[in-house]
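Q: Got a minute? One more chain.
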Amino acid sequence: MLAEDPKRLFHRQAKRRYRARVRAGIAVALVEYDADAVDFLVRIGSLTDEEAQDRAKVAAALSATVKATVALYRKERGLA
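A: Always. Here it is, folded:
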């Protein structure tokens, strides 16, 4: 059996991830942030100082913080 072209494999895997997000009702958005936002994430314990330099870690922390905020909002209002 021939090895799959890496470019084709990457695109097939990306499409699979995209379809999984669509089924789960999840969207992806490019988000701008500044040093104040990163400092806030470090202060609340969502990031360490070292992680603050890693864009993927910052993105994950922003996402987790938004999810937690929405969950708290819903809980406080009896929506969850």
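A: The chain is about 60% helix and 0% strand.
Q: Perfect, thanks.
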